Amino acid sequence: MSAVQKVQDPGDHARKYGAFQTEVYTQGMAFGVRPQVTTDYNKLESQAKEKMSEIAYSYVGGGAGERSTMDANRLAFRQWKLIPRMLVPTTYRDMTVSLFGQKYESPVLCAPVGVQKLFHSHGETGVAEVMASIDVPYIASTASSQTIEEIAAANDKGAGGKGGQRWYQLYWPHTEKITESLLSRAKSLGYSVLVVTLDTWAMSWRPWDLDNAFVPFFVGNGNATGFADPAFRERFSHMSGGKTPEDDMVAASHAWIADVFAGKAHTWDQLAHLRHHWEGPIILKGIQHPHDAVEAHARGMDGIICSNHGGRQLDGAIGSLEVLPEIVEAVKGKKTKRDPNESFVVLFDSGVRTGVDVIKAIALGAKAVLIGRPWVYGLGINGKFGARDVVRGILADVDQSMGLAGIQNLSDCTRDKLRRVEYGADRHSSN
């Protein structure tokens, strides 16, 4: 008796992202068109360096100190190896994930990155638009060079009028009225999740920026959301004798920086103020210790992002992937106080460069993964279309690699699919 293969139902998500690979080959073979942005992750940074200004490249490519935390992030991924399984029905993969009761097409999110007009004139609105067009949630940074109103409009445009999926990242001001105003604006504009960055209350020692004597915020770049904020404008008017940010950009920039990057840390107790003024999910970004994850849950937060800010803040810090399994274990089974039906969520950020990196982070317990530098390099190379195609490439890599590893959906992406193998000479790839 011959065996008959059961035909797998492709469903609505069949090869949605993996088809990008076929598109690239078709464009080349049929029309002689090659990708404008390299698909080789280890060449992406060098291509961006050639295209971008020295100041722009140094700002995104640099890190804290000698960039050892950046190296640690990449090396951490190299220590985990996939163990593929064969004869598994993975012809079609399902990459969808549910976060805070909402369905997302993939576990990839666009990490919050500020001052995007430094890298290309398309800026945040361009990136927010194209991310919506490929169903990738956009996380808007407080340090954006365009306002959150402009970003929201562009995000909706990219979604074809159906409403884009977007979150808001807060650099937390010390003036409570300004914080309340920012949150109120974000809520009214359809930003569904609040991401609070904890590790950037003061600027780190960044030699690449120091050697250029460059901080974009000093001259207004990255302050658009602040300058447009009614509470900040009122405060600045009182401070300056009736001036607006448009009257004195330098003075307004210093006033904004003094409130947001004040060199003074917030405390756990102050999270209650955010919880009071934001009814939706709140995630804390910058968590690297299991105890801090447990404390975040105890304080009524809905999740955390295991992150070291891509190695931009503390030099010599542990690679985020190293501590991810411990953090996941520490909050395993915990439900949120806001919604007892929702699990406390662990997301991941820092050092993710490839689709296989995404799979590894998910297998180690992350629910979803944030991508940062790669798409910024794409933005610098070819504007919003470069950013889009870098993320499309990563999504295609996730899709294809899941199939080749014998992983049909994200629920199958479990710890037993990995083995830790420490090669003393294993090199890190491009930062």
Topology (elements, then pairings):
Blueprint: H1 19-31, H2 41-51, H3 54-61, H4 68-78, E1 80-82, E2 97-99, E3 102-104, E4 108-110, H5 123-133, E5 138-141, H6 148-158, E6 166-171, H7 176-188, E7 194-197, H8 207-211, H9 224-227, H10 230-240, H11 249-260, H12 271-277, E8 282-287, H13 290-298, E9 303-306, H14 320-330, E10 345-348, H15 355-363, E11 369-371, H16 373-405, E12 418-420
Parallel strand pairs: 4-11, 5-6, 6-7, 7-8, 8-9, 9-10
Antiparallel strand pairs: 1-12, 2-3
Helix pairs in contact: 2-16, 3-16, 5-6, 5-16, 13-14, 15-16
Strand order of the largest sheet: 5-6-7-8-9-10
Strand content: 5-15%
Count helical runs: 16
Sheet with the most strands, sense and barrel status: 6 strands, parallel
Please estimate the helix content: 40-55%
What's the shape? globular
Helix/strand-derived class? alpha/beta
N→C terminal distance: 54 Å
Mean pLDDT: 94
N-to-C order of helices and strands: HHHHEEEEHEHEHEHHHHHEHEHEHEHE
Stretches with pLDDT under 50, minimum 5 residues: 1-5
| DSSP, total strands | 12
Cα radius of gyration in angstroms: 21 Å
Describe the structure.
It is a single chain. The protein has 431 residues and is α/β, with parallel strands linked by helices. The chain contains 16 helices and twelve strands. The protein has helices at residues 19-31, 41-51, 54-61, 68-78, 123-133, 148-158, 176-188, 207-211, 224-227, 230-240, 249-260, 271-277, 290-298, 320-330, 355-363, 373-405; strands spanning 80-82, 97-99, 102-104, 108-110, 138-141, 166-171, 194-197, 282-287, 303-306, 345-348, 369-371, 418-420. Strand 5, helix 6 and strand 6 (166-171) form a beta-alpha-beta unit. The protein is globular. The model is unreliable at 1-5 (pLDDT under 50).
